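Obj.: predict assembly geometry.
Materials: sequence records (below).
Method: joint structure prediction, all chains together.
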Amino acid sequence: MKISEVSLSRRRFVMSAGVLVIGAYLPGKGAGANAVGHTTAAADNAFAPNAFVQIGEDGIVTVLSKHTEVGQGAYTGMATLVAEELDADWAQMRVLAAPVDIAVYKNLAFGFQGTGGSSSVANAYQQMRRMGAMARVMLVQAAASLWRVPAQEITVSQGRIRHAASGREGGFGQFAALATRVPAPDLTTVVLKDPANFTLIGRQNGLHRVDSLAKTNGTAQFSEDIHEPDMLTVTISKSPRFGGKVRAFDASEALAIPGVVAVKQIDTGVAVYGKNTWAALQGRNKLKVDWDDAQSEMRSSEQIFAEFRQVSQKSGVIAANRGTPDEAFKNADKVIEAEYIFPYVAHAPMEPLVGYLFWDGSEVKARYGCQIQSLDHKQLCDLFQLPPEKVQIETILAGGSFGRRIDLGNPILGPDLAADMAAAAKAIGPGHGTKVVWTREDDIRNGWYRPMILHRLRAAIRDGKVTAWTDTVVGHSWAVDSAMAALVVANGLDQMMVEGASEIPYSFEHFRCDAHIVPGKVPTSSLRSVASTHTGHAVESFIDQLLNETGQDPVEGRLALMGNAPREAGVLRAVAKAANWQGAGVVEGRARGVGVAKAFGTYVAQIAEVSLGEGGIPRVHKVWCAVDCGLVVNPDVVRAQIEGGIGYGLGIALYSSITLQDGLVEQSNFHNYRPLRIDEMPQIEVVIVPSSENPTGVGELGVPVIAPAVGNALVQLGRPRTSLNLPLYRPNPNL
Amino acid sequence: MIDLTVNDQPLSFDGDPSMPLLWYLRDEAGLTGTKFGCGMAMCGACTVHMDGVPVRACVMPVAAAQGKKVTTIEGIGATPAGQAVQQAWLNLDVVQCGYCQSGQIMSATALLMQHVAPSDADIDAAMAGNVCRCATYVRIRAAIHEASTTLGKEEAS
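Observations (raw structure tokens):
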């Protein structure tokens, strides 16, 4: 099947037999299509005005989402945009994942097919509305020709097409077959609604997530849930040290486990094939592998930080420079310095990595929660040495990502899920469906962490004012050597290492941000909010320190420096008002800290109310967050993302740390890689700042400033600034 | 041979009795709503009820379910508490990625079966074993209170 045929066959779409279908669309026959058990093929005369919208004779509108649903609400967002311009009723909307077709389904912000960077609604806002508007025009035209009335006399509202003068009306389904014969209008001539007339976009209540039901009754299908006849479940034993290779292995005890059918050395380790999960898990436990550490990372985290610290003394590649900061330091009354270090962090989505793949010797069909279709598709094509049309990926729901499901396919630092799936299938040979499963231990220990990072900050103070600010960022770059390199790395500078540090909300006469990329053997990747996972904390902790040193209020002092940052100032004012900010200080054992950031075009400010809990663990009682993400498509999804992002970011801020000891990862599961739990979750109040600017993302925006907001409160509670490296809670402060 | 009842269906299993109940339910009984998250009872994604008590199926050998009544996410909606919890989850759009939510709902339902009107402290105690990496905790708490209100009204009427 060629890609173009895939596009054409969209007319034969899959649609719901029941209430909600959350699954994937894969045309044709095979392992993929059969397994979406609760979908059925639609009739030939279903109406597919474009590659994104399909309307069945039952009136069901199915949106093909080019964005993967990882929990962020992308499916709901895509459906809202289409339904708004289509004037559909929300209850008739369904969403399926689009197949791989880069030309059609590319992310307009990236130029390739994939989800990330809080870009889904932002890049698809106009595009999906156009798709809905186009479908509406064609349905109206079909109704006009059937009723023999002028199209302009027809109205559409909540899924009903009406001609008032003749009293006729009908649902979309009645016109679906006829609409397939209406010539498609030129997309550029389709008129979109004036936002003043929106009925779904921006609606506060009643627009429930399209995936709520299936995720509430256990029917939602994740990669982990895939079961195919004769499928083999595969666990892979990987080197405990990064860069280690298999020297030898003894599979005799593993093969003695009932249900273990094979053990094979593969490119990515040693694979154990089981008839069920339990067999595959037990088999791997019994496997004995001798690892060759000649090329391994043998260092401990402290040694890597020591290297970073040494490097930070030198000037790096300039990311931004204004004025003459070095001169300003010479003329300063006082120079203030700070260093913030950030450990490796594992994303730890609830569903560890899993993927199903069937290779018949000439074609590949993979099914899993794929996040960057373009990159995975290319990897699979390369690994199987197959042309693009012979490799299909069916995207299904992903049990969280936070960046983990972005498979960077980094040839230097080793394999990730796509390579595991390919290696496992190739080693057992064609004709077997293989499901590679990662356990939590694999998830915590197999790398692809947020890189270790160090910020060295300096400020010059003269006449009581900050005259210069410099920030030297040192760390690994997840982008270098990866398939993303061309997008974010240029002239030795990784933009995704300095976002939030190279441009800050505060104006100083002299400013410099420089960066050093330090190579490492530990595979790293982007974590939710990317550079802002560290730049947010470094910048907002340091500005707070400077304001404190110069006797200024954390809110008023920031505002005074925000002359060139009106939207940052807007969210800061909004959050200060919501929290009834009364200045710094401790009241009844509680203090409040502030943080402000811009990331991915969205502006956030937070105030956290904190006390010291049992064992010195920071206790965060409440967080106020103001967000300006332009025009809001789904207000409740925005609130949910901010709530969840704060919780995710707070867990990282307090606890998340992957440490190496002699190259071995010291953590393995949730008992020693501590997640935030419900009893530690603060109350959250979200203020959405009204805006008519183009929509920007929110999926990652709860994360950047929760750490500094908490840290800045801790300082008022007596913690020294030098103790605010992440994570904020360290049972062993030497780590 | 192990005989057990799952969602009111009598089932039997003649495989490895040490297989965790989780893998029996998912791989053998085809009930994939119960999730794997950690394999060591640290995250609660695998929570099911055994004779009405919440247990972590990932560390419970299937043999321990001999003669017991097991309820999973696929069956909990048949109980008044389960139905109230699932409805509250829908009303408040609790879910994000959704992967942990079966376990959250099973723990929340067990709580409401014990305490029709739990306090925040009761919720903390009953739900702290269920990790949600999307951190939907604010809505989980609100939904438990909402389900509690629904059940209270049903009891009163």
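Conclusions so far: The two ends of chain A are 54 Å apart (CA to CA).
To do: check interface contacts against the pulldown list.
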